[in-house]
Amino acid sequence: MTRYVVNRVALGLVVLVGLAFATFLIIHLVPGDPVRQALGAQASPQQIEEVRDQLGLNDPLPTQFWDYLSNSATGQFGDSFVQSSAVSDLVGDRIAPSALLIAYGLLVALLIGVPLAIVAALKPNSVIDHSARLVATLSFATPLFWLGLVLALVFGLELDIFPVSGYETGIDGILKTLTLPALALGLALTVFVLRILRSSLLEVLQSDYIDAARARGLSEGRIVAKHAMRNAVMPTVTIMAIQVGFLISGAVVLEQVFQIPGVGSLLVESVERRDYEVVQTLVLLAGATVVFVNLAADVLQAAIDPRVRLAGR
Amino acid sequence: MSTSEVAARPLGAAARAGRRARSRPATPVIVGAVIVGLLALAALLAPLITPYDPNKVDFLDTLESPSWSHPMGTDDAGRDIFARSLYGLRLDLAVVLFVTYVPLPIGVLLGSIAGYFGRGVDSVMARTADVMLAFPFFVLVIAIIAITGPGLKGVLIGVPIAGWALYFRLARSEMLVLREQPFMLATTGLGYSRTRSILRHAVPNLWRTALIYSTLDMVVNLLLLASLGYLGLGAQPPDAELGSIIAGGQPYLLSAWWIATLPGLILVAFGVGVGLIGDGLSDGRLRSASA
Questions:
Q1: Do B275 and A137 touch (CB under 8 A)?
Q2: Cβ separation of B233 and A268 shorter than 8 Å?
Q3: Is the CB of residue B114 less than 8 Å from the CB of residue B168?
Q4: Binning pLDDT at 50, 70 and 90, where does residue A133 land?
Q5: A98: which residues sit within 8 A by CB, 6+ positions away?
Q6: A15 and B288 in contact by Cβ < 8 A?
Q7: What is the least distance, in Å, from the CA of B183 to any CA of chain A?
Q8: What is the pTM of this model?
């Protein structure tokens, strides 16, 4: 177990350093001088030079990367040179709505996907199984922002159940403002839950120990819930962990549709404002989140399933 | 956009299924091909199908609901939405073909090389691909657009930079299996150069998987392109692009629902068509991993 985890963490660290390097490049690949572009044409050469010094852009590249790496590791992301405030403050203010949206979307996907997958696996080729397939094909082809707009039109404007834009805190506020975007995100994610859980359940349900459980006269509900799900659920967790990138991407678009002040809309605003420091930080954080979630899923899987952690022996 | 499932499992059987399907295509593949074919034809022949100029402003005909003369209605500037959608699809498809099929050969070639040589070459390349795939795809493309500035240029550069890693993983995992096959060992025994072994003997056996996968990748890229257009980071006005047409309709969602909703149906139809083809060719294996 320890060896597996150490290996896995080491690999994660290598990827994290790679992520840092890739995002480090952003500010250096901007054609021309990013500082000049950000400050605008009216900035004097002295002003530009001052900001460049302040940002360390005049240091040798390896020094700059080392500073960037060590500062990022300790959560110091410098100051935005477009908006004169710390990047960590700018980002920190916007994380909660995005995190809640993603968590809510995940919940919606599980609430819809798990029961459907169980029914589809218990009755393969039934009407429910076929319609689940159809829904999967449709949702694969549907752009998230368009799905969000259609939901906003139907449930927001026509039926007037939810507001179509804005964000409010508190349980009531979240239910009011995040339900529609979370529904869009969740529906898109349901496909993954449905497909993976259905196929792994189908496989598990054919194994001998399930026959043995049936022979012992256990109820079908108990067999599925206690015996089959235990073995079928892990691939779903792994796929969900991999899909965290999809969730983040989805949140970026849906925050724009529903005017939610999250990190996704901050990213789009920052690209438009040429606020490279903020873009850099957000992209790094997005990548790091994917790495950490996948690491957590792998370690969790190793902790639960001895076959995984002993595989390398 | 995950590939771990695809990457973990060489798709020899799926490739054979594809070959079988070619002799007698399954019904979903035919249906999908008809949908995609019709849409592609409509995009290509847009000037013949619609009499309207997609950018022609007509302030006497603003926000008209769908009718025989304007099948998808008009927008706030009186532009015909159907014409804009067809021209938008045309632009989208051209960009999508580029950003899907430029990284494909690069990824396949690099993946074959990494898989063939193994060791140092492989681990450097594989870790690089890991880094690319760790970024949420959409966010990575936005980051590249941040460098180039909003517009199609960023998309044309950004998607291939982010996209090759997928094909790299597919080709590499197949190469790891292929290189142990007797015929590949024979190329070494016969004293063929490594270039010849890889290009003439290994690549013909592994590009098929990448090609099947690319059908689904096209849909992913189409939706990505439309999303960027919607956010205002992709195609810039006045160019008609499906995502930006939809974005332009958002303020009129209640009064003129057709602007934001109808062009989206074209995206959905195209995606379903390609999905049916890809699903049929791969026996439904790819989608479970990549939808």
A1: yes
A2: yes
A3: yes
A4: confident
A5: A251, A255, A260, A262, A263, A264
A6: no
A7: 29
A8: 0.87
pLDDT at B289 over 50: no
CB contact under 8 A, A144 and B223: yes
d(CA B259, CA B253): 8
* pLDDT of the residue at B283: 61
How many CB atoms within 10 Å of residue A108? 20
Option in A15, A29, A140 nearest B291 (CB): A140
Give B 191-220 residues with CB within 8 A of chain A: 219
Residue B99 to residue B91: CA distance in whole angstroms: 12
Q: Tell me, yes or no, if B223 comes closer than 8 A to chain A by beta carbon.
A: yes
Among A18, A30, A141, the residue with its CB nearest the CB of B147 is A30
Using CB atoms, pick whichever of B227, B250, B276 lies closest to residue A137: B276
In A, minimum Cα distance to B270 occurs at A141
Reported as a single tens digit per residue, the pLDDT across B162-172 is: 899 999 999 99
Instruction: Write out the two tokens for A225.
Output: 């819930």
The 8-class DSSP code of residue B64 comes to P
Cα angle value B219/B242/A267 (rounded, 5°):
80
Q: Tell me whether the omega of the peptide bond preceding residue A124 falls within 30 degrees of 0, making it cis.
A: no
Q: Considering Cα of A269, then A272, then A275, then A278, what sign does the dihedral take? A: positive
pLDDT at A185: 94
What per-residue confidence (pLDDT) applies to A260?
A: 93
pLDDT in tens, A45-64: 888 888 788 777 788 888 88
H/E segment holding residue B116? helix B103-117
CB of B7 within 8 Å of a chain A CB? The answer is: no
Q: How confident is the model at residue B216 (pLDDT cuts 50, 70, 90)?
A: confident
CA distance from start to end of chain B: 7
Q: CB-based contact (8 Å) between B139 and chain A?
A: yes
Please, what's the b/e burial string for A35-47 (b: 16 or more CB within 10 A of its CB; e: otherwise)? bbbbbeeeeeeee
Unique residue bearing structure tokens 């195609």: B235
Cβ contact B253–A149 (<8 Å): yes
Report chain B residues whose CB lies below 8 A from the CB of A267: 139, 142
Cβ B243–A279 below 8 Å, yes or no? no
The packing angle between helices A127-141 and A170-205, to 10°, is 120
Element (H, E) at B265: helix B257-281
pLDDT, tens only, A206-245: 888 888 888 888 888 888 888 888 888 888 888 888 889 8
